[in-house]
Amino acid sequence: TQGPIFPPYDNVIKTVKKFDGIYDSVWWPDHLMGWIPDGLWKPELIEVSKLQKSPHTFLETFTIMAAAASNTSNILLGSAVTEPFRRHPAEIAQAFLTLDHISKGRAILGIGAGEGENIVPYGLEWESPARRLRESIEVIRLLWSGNRVDYTGKIWKLKDAILSLQPEKEGKYPPIWVGAHSEKTLEITGRLGDGWLPEHLEVDEYSEKLKKIRDASRVAGRDPECVTPGLMTSLVISADHEDCHRMLNSVAAKAYALLTPPEKYEAHGYKHPFGNLNTYKDYIPTRVSETEIVSAIGEVPQEICEHRYIHGTSDEVIRTIEEYVRNGLRHIVLWNPTPLCDYSKTKESFSALLKVVQYFKDMRKK
Which residue from 34, 145, 210, 288 could staple onto 55, CB 3.0 to 4.6 Å apart? Predict the structure, then answer.
């Protein structure tokens, strides 16, 4: 599931201790800014805003992962996902070896090409994201060798660099899972990754992209099964299916649906409220006025939300996940934004989610 990312710190530790006996893995987003603009962060629109002043409040990912590692003993701990714009790959390499020691071998490096909201407003240039991702993974693996290394890329250049810190268990480095969606990043995943962690893909698209990863693995001379197929997805879950449809029409559900690429809107016969922008690159929530965001929310069709979220009762969610499993899925990360859609459904939604988790844990035992 998604790791707790908001203060107070004591609540974070309390939550991850509970997760340690329930989930197999916990994954932390790496954000400076949230996806919901301030113009929507009002109690009359999103009730949970009563509990948190800003939608852009995040604890630092690697630090909180270290704290979680120190307070748990079973769950895997991953970043979902970090990127190599804000952090040099040498820093990422050292940080995850450190997390590997703290967690006794439970850390997973989730890494991707980045999102504009965490890069552009902070004075960093969005340049060659796929190349930067590929070079960064290559640099990380070189540094993990423990040898003095040179590297000459278009983005990164190393000369006589060394990182002699070794993993907790000799030869067992943290797995690298790639948050890939594009042709270039899927190829990178197949060639260099240990796992794949895309976000919000429908079943047919998931199957097609997984095939491209396996083809890339073959071309690279790797076992096509060497990359663990994962998925990070959002749930709107309730005891009643139609109640989920009501929540899919909420401001919060539609706010995240703005991240759905324009081509997917077009595939269902709609136009994206913001036009043909690259949503993960060009959509900067702090640069959208209240008037613009309220207007955009009004133009998000509920059908788009129905395709973006896995939704329904526990049994319906289970059946949907099983369809992904038939198409290759092996590790799913379940985030429950139902309370953002209707805060009164918090307890009910998490009870329903736990039924889903228990079902798959029981199936695995069989």
Answer: 34
Q: Is the dihedral of CA 261, 264, 266, 269 positive or negative?
A: negative
Residues belonging to the chain: 366
As a whole number of angstroms, the distance between CA 296 and CA 260 comes to: 13
Q: How many CB atoms lie within 10 A of CB 268?
A: 12
Q: pTM above 0.85?
A: yes
CA distance 158 to 80: 27
Radius of gyration of the chain, Cα coordinates, nearest whole angstrom: 20
Strand partners, 235: 310
C-alpha 333/C-alpha 317 separation (Å) is 13
Distance between CA atoms of 366 and 362, rounded to whole angstroms?
7
Residue 275 CA to residue 266 CA, distance in Å, equals 11
Low-confidence ranges of the chain (pLDDT < 70): none
d(CA 352, CA 343): 15
Helix spans in 172-221 (H): 183-192, 203-219
pLDDT per position as a tens digit, 123-142: 999 999 999 999 999 999 99
For residue 337, how many C-alpha atoms fall within 13 Å in the half-sphere facing its CB? 24
Running DSSP on this structure, what letter comes out for residue 173?
Answer: P
Residue 332 has what DSSP assignment? E
Q: Which two tokens stand for residue 69?
A: 């590692």
For residue 364, the model assigns a pLDDT of 87
DSSP-assigned letters across all residues of 119-161: TGGGT-----HHHHHHHHHHHHHHHHT-S-EEEE-SS-EEEEE
Which pLDDT belongs to residue 366? 82
